[in-house]
Amino acid sequence: MFNYKKQTKFTFIVLLIIYLLFIFSFNALAKLEVYFSLYDDPESIIIKNIDNANEFINIAMYAFTDREIAQAILIAKDRGVDIKIYLDRSQVNAKYSKSRYFINNVIKNIRISSNNYIMHNKFAVIDNEMVITGSYNWTASAGERNDENLLVIDDKNIIKEYQNQFNNLWNNKYSTERYQELISKVNIKPSPILETTTKNTNSPGNKIININTASLEELDCLWGVGKKIAQNIIDYREAHGEFKSPEDIKLVNGIANKKWDRWKLDGWVIKVN
Q1: Is 240 an active-site residue?
Q2: Which residue in 122, 207, 227, 259 is the catalytic one?
Q3: Cys-Cys crosslink for 219: which of 59, 120, 157, 230, Cβ 3.0 to 4.6 Å?
Q4: Are both 45 and 98 inside the same structural domain?
Q5: Side-chain half-sphere exposure of 205, counting CA atoms within 13 A
Q6: What CATH number is attached to the domain comprising 201?
């Protein structure tokens, strides 16, 4: 009996140690990086993580005026990264806001908060692999004059919470009127393909693109296709001849099943003749 109790106690201790080691190891995998403006150059950290994005960047930002970060986002878009930018209403008219810059450079997924007070979030979710947040607005002042903090977090549970909140803001708390006001300030007109394909978007066969004849601008309308991948498509068909079937587009560098499936989900009909 004594040996049995001793053995049971020993087994319990071993299991407890294994459990604690597992928890410790699991938590060690989660990473939290902390940076402070005027000391650590948070701007370069943001740009580095944007440059490493592969699939999407979802941004909710109170103030966005930083030129270098804006340029990094355009570069990410051109390599096929899906960009969504959600801004406070002040960014429609703010003198140095990059909202108009993004519209002029054909980033279509911009929404303006419907909050009549302040949308004070400052975060970005990248590829469901990290969250960038903190007091740091994406502005020159935040990096050069203000005392700010920046956090880079890769904890899956925290990322999920931020992504859920972004989805809530994006889907439920945006103003079409403020977006139209933003559009009016840059004096751009929708491209012909957008005018003809965005009407009655719930109908099948409504959005049609011929990948053997489509221009770079037309190909750029497909989700996840920026100017760089659009040019890859054009270069491929010039080098190999016309696509024989719609799914042959997946042979192009930068096109994968995820993009193909998303186009179908969005209602696109891909044609070759």
Answers
A1: no
A2: 122
A3: 230
A4: yes
A5: 0
A6: 1.10.150.280
